[in-house]
Specification:
The strands form 4 sheets. The chain has a 4-stranded mixed beta sheet with strand order 1-4-5-13, sandwiched between helices. It is of the alpha/beta class. About 45% of the residues lie in helices and about 15% in strands. It has 3 domains: about 60 residues, Transferase, Pyrimidine Nucleoside Phosphorylase, Chain C (Transferase, Pyrimidine Nucleoside Phosphorylase, Chain A, domain 3); about 220 residues, Nucleoside phosphorylase/phosphoribosyltransferase catalytic domain (Pyrimidine Nucleoside Phosphorylase, Chain A, domain 2); about 90 residues, Pyrimidine nucleoside phosphorylase-like, C-terminal domain (Aldehyde Oxidoreductase, domain 3, Alpha-Beta Complex). The structure holds uracil (URA). Uracil (URA) binds next to helix 9.
Length: about 425
């Protein structure tokens, strides 16, 4: 049990720009989780952290204190090394789906604890739940057994993993303090370190559809998280990748599962394949298995075999057709030329309004809803050809989705200006 401290003294210290001691941090995080520090006190401290920042030692200690409030998983007894990936979230980001089985097919186990979508970014669990029968609930023992037999698990994080983060994240959400880099970094890394992976690759998204809108803030977040991983003894690498336009050609749930199946079958959009392979190579290198070429395992069908085993192990019916939306509406290209811009945030908002995402944690999502892209920035389009297809079960949702897409795309005279490379930077 940490020494008793005074919450007000700690808030005032950070308000006045001082460093917090290890003891102060341990006490504050623990006392807040126990209910001995009030929400308004933690909210004041979160705002002081947002305004005055934290030093590396403070963020490491804060992360450790959050981990200590819950249980830690341990996969060190497995017969193969572990490696995991975390994405800070974007539109059309289905990479976990082909990536986890691919890395497992290369001999490295992937214990992937995922979340649900909130707002315009999708959640991996929502996507996978569009597969009939598939369950995200996997016990610790079942997770170990599946990692040993299949090599990959994608499931929900239990409530025992860093409970301080659950409480603090909900508080930040309603107090304008989500954006503090020390708090984002410690929130993400406390869960990933508690999850017990031996190595971690971070995909930090940059652009309109991401948390971090510009390269400098994304670099700062990446640097902070990589340092936290190192301080906790988990080798961590971060890639900064573009999220100014959606990833792949789909944003939704079942339609993203289908696109992931296309990748596992050797096809799929170029950007999804490229990012899957880049991240797979990073995860394998981090786990000491850079002797295996993931492109070969994708081409020879072994990644697909792991996918089928992984979905089946969690109750999914791999032969059942994926759900389809009842209604669709096509948005045509307004003129002929090159698509110079297709904004990720607008597409994410449209998919959300069509029913693919949720506004509150309790909301249900529509499995078939979403947006299909028929062109990407840099592609030539002809006037009237389908540019986007909107999908939903409830046609009264089309109007609000179309509103979200007003001004979201431009067809120009052939210049490719505005199209960014997918991989923007690497932080080690
Ligand atoms: N994701 C998290 O898990 N935590 C944050 O603070 C932000 C994004």
């Amino acid at each position: 049990m940490a020494d008793a401290h005074d919450a007000v003294e700690i808030i005032v210290a950070k308000r006045d720009g001082h460093e917090l001691s290890d003891g102060q941090i341990d006490w504050m995080v623990d006392a807040y989780t126990r209910g001995a520090v009030a929400d308004e006190q933690m909210a004041a401290l979160a705002m002081a952290i947002l305004l005055n920042g934290m030093h590396r030692r403070e963020i490491s200690r804060w992360t450790r204190a959050m981990i200590e409030t819950g249980e830690r998983m341990d996969f060190s007894g497995l017969s193969r090394p572990t490696s995991d990936k975390h994405s800070t979230g974007g539109v059309g980001d289905k990479i976990t789906l082909p990536l986890a089985p691919l890395v497992a097919a290369c001999g490295v186990a992937v214990p992937q604890l995922s979340g649900r979508g909130l707002g315009h970014t999708g959640g991996t669990l929502d996507k996978l739940e569009s597969i009939p029968g598939w369950s995200c609930e996997v016990s610790y023992d079942a997770m170990i057994a599946q990692l040993e037999s299949v090599g990959a698990v994608i499931c929900a994080a239990g409530s025992t993993l860093a409970p301080a983060d659950k409480k603090l994240y909900a508080l930040r959400d309603v107090t304008g303090t989500v954006e503090a880099v020390p708090l984002i970094a410690s929130s993400i890394m406390s869960k990933k370190i508690a999850e017990g992976t031996a190595a971690l690759v971070l995909d930090v998204k940059v652009g309109s559809g991401a948390f971090m809108k510009d390269l400098d803030s994304a670099r700062e977040l990446a640097r902070t998280m990589v340092d936290l991983g190192k301080d906790a003894g988990v080798p961590t690498v971060a890639l900064l990748t573009d999220m100014s336009t959606p990833l792949g050609l789909t944003a939704g749930n079942a339609i993203e599962v289908q696109e992931s199946l296309d990748v596992l079958a050797g096809g799929g959009p170029t950007d999804v394949v490229e990012l899957t392979l880049v991240l797979a190579r990073e995860m394998l290198t981090a786990a000491g298995r850079d002797d295996v070429d993931p492109a070969e395992r994708l081409a020879d069908g072994s990644a697909m075999d792991v996918w089928l085993a992984m979905i089946t192990a969690q109750g999914g019916d791999v032969h059942a057709p994926l759900p389809r939306a009842r209604e669709s509406q096509v948005l045509p290209a307004p003129s002929s030329g090159v698509l110079t811009r297709l904004d990720a945030l607008s597409v994410g908002l449209a998919a959300w309004r069509l029913g693919a995402g949720r506004a509150r944690k309790e909301d249900l999502v529509q499995a078939g809803a979403g947006v299909v892209l028929h062109a990407k920035p840099g592609d030539e389009v002809s006037v009237g050809q389908p540019l986007l297809t909107l999908l939903t079960d409830e046609p009264d949702r089309f109007a609000r989705a179309e509103e979200a897409l007003e001004g979201a795309y431009e067809v120009g005279d052939g210049s490719r200006e505005g199209t960014s490379p997918l991989l923007l930077d690497r932080v080690t």
